[in-house]
Specification:
By secondary structure, this protein is α+β, with helices and mostly antiparallel strands. A hairpin with a 5-residue loop joins strand 1 and strand 2. Helix 2 packs antiparallel against helix 11, helix 5 crosses helix 8 and helix 7 packs across helix 9. The radius of gyration is 17 Å and the shape is globular. The structure holds glutamine. The site of glutamine has 11 residues, from loops.
Length: about 300
């Protein structure tokens, strides 16, 4: 068994090389000196944990995986990918540039902000005003975390400073890329980013994807094998924004990050991994978290390209 505690101690100081997100003011309040990890072993259903694995933090962009899964469940893969692409970006996660430069018909992929807002608007188009409540209860189910909740302070902070996200949404609205009401979609997006999770709940989510779309703790299927494969391949190619290529070389495991400092990985058929460390690199990925993930992937030989 891998020594998670030792790996946390080894990587904790790396947070000094990063900075907590400050463009959302409530995130700037978070103590950067934290590193927590949880590992869900599909073999025996055991969960290993170390460091701040039970500390709650904002899920942020990792919620994009949850809404993608929900949109796929409601509309099917074919329909979802008529309205959002599957290509990686060379720009920051909240950039409008590629849509504008390429005169795109839909946003690049569901894990950058534009694509995520468009994906949320798909859920809104099916559910209307109740979309966030549905996302919240879906998140609680697939993270096996009944205490997962919406943090009002973070939500208000996101909403107050979310003008860039608004510009993306209204740009897409003007080009007929939004399926659902734009105001409801934006509000739902700000709320989904403000859901509070732990490394433990993210390990559970990773385990569902690693397990081909079936919750390993109760054997209930959430999405099909093919759909889970699609989500994992997008995590591999676009989950770490414009650094996804770099990390597929360094850490060959499908992973999604969030600016709250979370990382959620799915090592197919083996492990779900959740990590939390809030200090980020320039692309918006957790610095100590990625180093810890790299050690775990090496130690357990999880690289899918091996
Ligand atoms: N709420 C954040 C935003 O919209 C999420 C971004 C992220 O985690 N990369 O900018």
């Amino acid at each position: 068994m891998i020594q998670l505690e030792q790996l946390v101690q080894k990587n904790l100081a790396k947070e000094k090389e990063g900075k907590v997100a400050s463009y959302i003011p409530a995130l700037a309040e978070v103590n950067p000196k934290q590193l927590g990890v949880a590992l869900y072993d599909l073999d025996d259903g055991e969960i290993g944990e170390a460091g701040q694995s039970e500390v709650r933090f904002a899920i942020e962009s990792i919620s994009k995986v949850i809404t993608l899964m929900l949109a796929i469940k409601k509309m099917g893969i074919q329909e979802v990918f008529k309205h959002v692409g599957s290509r990686q970006t060379g720009f920051a996660f909240n950039s409008i540039l590629n849509m504008e430069i390429e005169k795109a018909k839909y946003p690049l992929n569901p894990f950058i902000n534009a694509g995520a807002i468009a994906t949320t608007s798909m859920v809104v188009s099916k559910t209307g005003e109740g979309a966030f409540e549905e996302i919240l209860s879906f998140a609680r189910d697939i993270c096996n975390d009944p205490n997962l909740y919406l943090d009002q302070i973070i939500y208000h902070s996101e909403r107050r400073t979310g003008n860039l996200d608004r510009s993306l949404a209204y740009y897409m609205e003007s080009k007929n890329m939004m399926l659902g009401d734009v105001v409801t979609s934006l509000d739902t997006y700000f709320k989904q980013c403000s859901m509070m999770v732990t490394a433990h709940s993210l390990a559970n989510l990773g385990a569902v994807l690693a397990n081909g779309g079936v919750k390993p703790w109760d054997n209930k299927r959430i999405i099909s094998d093919e759909e889970a494969r699609c989500v994992k391949s997008l995590m591999m190619t676009t989950g770490l924004y414009n650094q996804s290529g770099t990390y597929s070389r360094l850490i060959g495991v499908p992973t999604k990050s969030g600016v709250g400092g979370g990382l959620m990985s799915a090592a197919p058929h083996k492990y779900g991994i959740g990590i939390f460390s809030p200090a980020l690199d320039k692309a918006g990925n957790s610095v100590a978290g990625l180093d810890l993930l790299r050690d775990i992937v090496e130690g357990l030989e999880l690289d899918i390209f091996d």
